[in-house]
């Protein structure tokens, strides 16, 4: 969709802001450009909407060299969201959002209707906020209006330059999550500039890690964190990259452990036999509807125990849907102070459990898989937790 071919930009004062950029952003993909201050991120964006011209190389949008496209027409196909949102202070939120469609010749009524839908989409009730002026909004709300406005012309490409840079970390995380939800709906091709590796990892389908004007690595977040291409990338993503990686590695079926499963109504003696036969000290307990109830441990004293599982079971209903991040799995374990958590499918059926050991193995396998470019399920670990 958007292709950089050996693009360089040298400013008249001799600064080489961008040096031989060569990568492609697929349609509907969100690519984060991350790097320290002055590494050429903003310049890259400006080259895309022709606020700057490359010194060499070319940029193709849907196969067409943008150097031959009238800049005004080009910018209609490219939404631009910047940190200082640049809303018109004397226009209402609704009119700010409708600005571009009106300029594009849509009727005022249709444009306002679309603007209201977009405000709704970015989480601002148009009935509440539509009539307000920008200075009657919080910073986070202004950012959302900026995003709604950029989407109003329905451009296939969005450029977002540190759009959430000016808000506090809590609001920032909320905006990021909302934007991810929105992006799943609208599927724009997005270039998103940030200097924050956490943000880059959370949002990006792929990340371009910038050194001085050059892309040092262009890869999935998991690969950038798990297998940094250069020392520079390794130091930029930080020594806690293993921890960060937890948040971008999903729980897969192959990661799960399968302890014995018993029901509340089973005889405890039978449950005990099952655990002994499988050589484990506990079993997952489900109720009569196969809903997670908790766990039961093999009794310490020898000999059969009387009664049903219900009389011995303990409640523990920490669970996660399959596909959750390893980080949320770990966080849930800590929150419940639990040695395991259940992983459920879409119909809330038990698929297996995750323990600290299997969680660690999942992380190691995913790193191995990225390093060797294979699926995680194909990776056999040589040793299990050092054993
Ligand atoms: N118009 C200009 N003329 C000369 N040099 C410029 C111009 N614009 C940017 N530069 C220089 O080009 C380099 C890259 O700047 P750019 O704004 O692209 O970086 P950035 O990665 O977006 O930085 P930041 O995160 O601080 O915004 C910097 O050294 C900057 O000083």
Description:
The chain is an alpha/beta fold and 387 residues long. The protein has two domains: 2-246, 3-Layer(aba) Sandwich (Rossmann fold); 253-363, CBS-domain (Roll). The protein has 14 helices and 17 strands. A six-stranded mixed sheet has the order 6-7-8-3-9-10, with helices on both faces. A four-stranded antiparallel sheet has the order 2-1-4-5, covered by helices on one side. It is elongated, with a radius of gyration of 26 Å. The two termini are 48 Å apart. Adenosine-5'-triphosphate (ATP) binds at residues 11, 13, 15, 17, 35, 37-43, 195.
Count of separate DSSP helical elements: 14
What ranges have pLDDT less than 50 throughout 5 or more consecutive residues? Answer: none
Supply the number of structural domains.
Answer: 2
**N-C termini distance:** 48 Å
Strand order of the largest sheet: 6-7-8-3-9-10
- Shape assignment: elongated
Q: Given this structure, which CATH class of the largest domain is correct?
A: Alpha Beta
Radius of gyration based on Cα positions = 26 Å
CATH superfamily of the largest domain: P-loop containing nucleotide triphosphate hydrolases
Residue fraction in strands: 15-25%
The CATH topology of the largest domain comes to Rossmann fold
What molecules are bound to this protein? Answer: adenosine-5'-triphosphate
Structural class: alpha/beta
Q: Supply the CATH architecture of the largest domain.
A: 3-Layer(aba) Sandwich
Q: How many distinct beta strands? A: 17
Percent helix among the residues?
A: 25-40%
Most strands sheet = 6 strands, mixed
The average pLDDT is 88
């Amino acid at each position: 969709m958007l292709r950089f071919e050996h693009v360089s930009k040298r400013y008249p004062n001799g600064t080489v802001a961008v040096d031989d950029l060569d990568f492609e952003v697929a349609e509907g993909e969100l690519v984060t450009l991350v790097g320290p201050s002055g590494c050429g991120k903003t310049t890259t964006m400006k080259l895309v909407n022709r606020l700057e011209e490359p010194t060499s190389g070319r940029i193709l949008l849907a196969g067409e060299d943008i150097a031959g496209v009238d800049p005004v027409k080009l910018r209609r196909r490219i939404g631009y969201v910047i940190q200082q949102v640049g809303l018109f202070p004397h226009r209402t939120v609704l009119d700010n959002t409708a600005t571009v469609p009106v300029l594009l010749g849509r009727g005022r009524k249709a444009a306002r209707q679309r603007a209201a839908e977009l405000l709704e989409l970015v989480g601002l009730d148009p009935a509440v906020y539509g009539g307000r002026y920008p200075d009657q909004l919080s910073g986070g709300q202004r950012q959302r209006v900026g995003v709604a406005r950029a989407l109003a012309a329905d451009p296939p490409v969005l450029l977002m330059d540190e759009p959430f840079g000016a808000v506090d970390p809590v609001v920032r995380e909320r905006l990021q999550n909302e934007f991810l939800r929105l992006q799943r709906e609208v599927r724009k091709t997005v270039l998103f500039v940030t200097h924050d590796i956490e943000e880059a990892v959370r949002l990006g389908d792929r990340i371009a890690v910038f050194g001085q004007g050059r892309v040092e690595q262009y890869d999935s977040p998991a690969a950038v964190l798990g297998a940094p291409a250069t020392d520079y990338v390794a130091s930029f993503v930080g020594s806690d990259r293993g921890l960060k990686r937890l948040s971008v590695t999903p729980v897969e079926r192959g990661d799960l452990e399968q302890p014995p499963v018993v029901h509340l109504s089973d005889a405890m003696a039978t449950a005990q036999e099952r655990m002994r036969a499988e050589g484990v000290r506990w079993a997952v307990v489900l109720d009569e509807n196969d809903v997670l109830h908790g766990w039961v441990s093999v009794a310490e004293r020898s000999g059969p125990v009387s009664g049903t599982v219900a009389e011995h079971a303990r409640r523990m209903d920490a669970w996660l849907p399959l596909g959750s991040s390893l980080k949320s799995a770990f966080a849930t374990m800590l929150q419940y102070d639990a040695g395991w958590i259940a992983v459920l499918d879409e119909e809330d059926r038990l698929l297996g459990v995750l323990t600290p050991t299997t969680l660690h193995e999942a992380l190691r396998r995913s790193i191995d898989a990225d390093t060797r470019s294979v699926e995680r399920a194909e990776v056999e670990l040589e040793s299990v937790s050092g054993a």
